[in-house]
Write a structure and sequence with these properties.
alpha/beta, 7-stranded parallel β-sheet, 17% strand, elongated
Length: 392
């Protein structure tokens, strides 16, 4: 059989064999790192995690279930930016354990300020007694101090945890000493034949493995800063980092700059992190990269998915579209837990004749219930064999 055209998609599970934590393990690791550094954000982080566990338990879930790091980040972001949330005016109150994380009220100082705004004046005329005089300016200052005291926890909370959180995340995803043997072997076997390799991971594991295996790659960004379009050149592997990278920062909202070139300067991290609402963003090259990935998929008969849990609804929509346009395709899913995709991935799998009778299946879903490193031979076999369709 002629080698089929195929695209590759890597999720967090693809980095597990290199010792990197997955989305659930990261929650625990981030908390331990914040605690070790005695960061004030550790308490806030812990409270948010406990609230998410409670919410899950109220829905009938296990109180011992692990929490996804992106869910924690979403909750933190909504909390610290709640004044910008259109639903904020409908919330009657906020949890005091959260809003009072760092706030302190100096009651003695406030009392002194209020008293200093009022003085008693004695009128020397016989028909007048003492009168109370109010210094409006001082009283206004006292009111400002009182308001600041009540809002101190809120003001210190706003934006407090997001930057330290992302810095901690980047440190935890460092791959300098991570083993990449299995990924190098995979790339040696398949990189030259793949339409593209798209990854949802922020780490630099794929780049390190490509360099060690002597493979060239193209991020598609050489023209981005000047002309704002993604373009791939030559025969190098198309490496599409759909959610960004730990070594990317954004300048002027759109320009991608590698972090080693801007040390000591604050810029927005070049990463899409968070839940579904944050997966499609207007800044940076991310929408363009998704489009390029979809174009590569459309040119592919096979789609190799490794370590992805099908939790990105926008990406799932692209996969559904790919499924619906295949005639004889194969989706190869590598995951120790099996194919955990939502049932909506199955939409469009079946082809019917004009009378509404089932004619054939458009794709085969090939499950490889193993970790990435263990599945290398199985992947090679699945890529080299035609789709097999069970009787319908």
């Amino acid at each position: 059989m002629v080698d089929p055209k195929f695209s590759i998609l890597l999720g967090a599970g693809a980095s597990k064999d290199a010792g990197l934590p997955d989305a659930f393990e990261l929650t625990n690791e981030v908390y331990k790192d914040l605690l070790k550094r005695k960061s004030e954000q550790a308490k806030l982080f812990a409270i948010v995690v406990s609230k998410l566990i409670l919410r899950n338990a109220r829905k009938g879930g296990s109180p011992f279930a692990r929490v996804n790091i992106e869910d924690v980040y979403d909750a933190l972001k909504r909390l610290v930016n709640r004044d910008q949330d259109p639903l904020a005016e409908f919330v009657a109150g906020w949890d005091a354990s959260l809003l009072g994380v760092t706030g302190r009220i100096d009651a003695e100082k406030i009392i002194r300020s209020v008293l200093s705004s009022a003085t008693i004046a004695n009128d020397r005329r016989l028909d007048r007694g003492s009168s109370l005089k109010i210094d409006n300016w001082k009283l206004g200052r006292a009111a400002e101090e009182l308001e600041a005291a009540f809002n101190s926890g809120t003001d210190e909370l706003r934006g407090a945890s997001l930057e330290p959180f992302l810095e901690t995340l980047i440190r935890l995803l460092d791959v300098e000493e991570a083993p990449t043997n299995y990924l190098e072997e995979f790339l040696i076997r398949h990189a030259d034949k793949a339409q593209c390799l798209a990854t949802l991971n922020y780490d630099l594991l794929v780049e390190a493995a490509l360099t060690k295996s002597g493979r060239k790659y193209d991020l598609g960004l050489t023209k981005w800063n000047d002309f704002r379009y993604v373009r791939f050149h030559g025969r190098a592997l198309k490496l599409m980092k759909l959610h960004g990278s730990t070594n990317w920062v954004l300048r002027n909202d759109d320009e991608i700059v590698f972090s080693e070139d801007v040390k000591g300067r604050f810029m927005r991290k070049g990463m899409i992190f968070g839940g579904q609402s944050d997966k499609l963003v207007p800044h940076g090259p991310f929408l363009h990269l998704r489009h390029e990935f979809y174009k590569a998929m459309r040119q592919s008969s096979y789609l190799l998915v490794i370590g992805y849990s099908y939790g990105d609804i926008h990406l799932n929509a692209l996969i559904r579209s790919w499924v619906s346009t295949r005639k004889n395709g194969k989706l190869i899913n590598v995951d120790p837990g099996g194919f955990r995709g939502s049932h909506d991935i199955y939409r469009g799998m079946l082809e019917f004749d004009k009378d509404g009778n089932l004619k054939k299946r458009r794709i085969e879903i090939k499950e490889i219930k193993k970790g990435f490193a263990e599945a290398l031979d199985d992947i090679s076999e699945a890529l080299s064999t035609p789709p097999e369709f069970a009787p319908t």
